[in-house]
Design goal:
Length: about 250
């Protein structure tokens, strides 16, 4: 049976002299891996150059239940991005999120709602001219809803946030995985943000980096096999260590 589906590309790695191995997320088939032949012919039905991180493609392939790698029969760009790969800041965010999603999708079964959320978010970022410095933070926190690990916000006025219990509490827990006072307040603000209002929340570069560190810790606590930041790809690690998003 021939299958047509949209695929969001996360990662591509050269394999041998004339092929690349591609990992991504298919809207209706979840995590997927493809093998793509490198071809420089203008008449090729599958051009390897379009398999870039966070590219949104329409791909056709033949279903083979036992095959671990899919060989596409045809592929084309489903939604051309205008700025995600040309803006240095947006490109850094995009590559970081591609590596992050690659790790998450190894552990979670992702569906169409998950896929649509990611595409909708990237579309917002692609068309935004400013006010997106907090985008990656908000994206990661909202993503938790689709993975079943969303924080409990019923007691958001409490002074501490327990990262393990995923809830705001009145006193510091006995373990080390919690945040308090000012950081808990900033975390609560983040949970109230949406893409249209996040520019109203002014965070310093130091605060933004610290919140990202806390979010990654939160994911590691709730998805135990999630990679440590040191195991992410080089670009993602560099983004984490020195985010260049200032007041954009």
């Amino acid at each position: 049976m021939t299958i047509h589906d949209e695929i969001l590309i996360f990662h591509a790695l050269k394999y041998g002299d004339d092929q690349i191995i591609v990992e991504g997320l298919a809207k209706n088939y979840g995590k997927i891996a493809l093998v793509v032949r490198i071809s420089h012919s203008s008449r090729a039905k599958v051009r390897h150059t379009i398999f870039q991180p966070m590219a949104l493609l329409e791909v056709q392939w033949e279903e083979k239940p036992r095959a671990q790698l899919i060989r596409p029969l045809a592929a084309r760009v489903a939604q051309p991005w205008q700025t995600l790969h040309t803006s240095p800041v947006k490109a850094a965010i995009t590559l970081f999120l591609a590596e992050f999603l690659l790790q998450v999708c190894r552990q979670e079964q992702s569906g169409a709602l998950f896929f649509d959320y990611v595409v909708h978010s990237l579309t917002w970022l692609d068309t935004s001219k400013d006010g997106y410095a907090n985008f990656h933070l908000l994206f990661l926190m909202r993503l938790a809803q689709f993975l079943g690990i969303s924080p409990n916000t019923t007691e958001v006025e409490q002074p501490y946030f327990d990262l393990m219990a995923a809830e705001f509490v009145s006193r510091a827990p006995a373990h080390a995985y919690y945040i308090g006072e000012a950081e808990a307040k900033a975390f609560a603000q983040l949970l109230r943000m949406n893409f249209s209002t996040m520019h109203l929340f002014q965070l310093s570069r130091t605060q933004r980096n610290r919140i990202l560190e806390l979010i990654l810790t939160y994911y590691r606590l709730h998805i135990p096999a999630f990679a440590r930041i040191e195991e992410l790809g080089g670009v993602a690690r560099d983004f984490y260590l020195d985010i260049r998003c200032k007041k954009t």
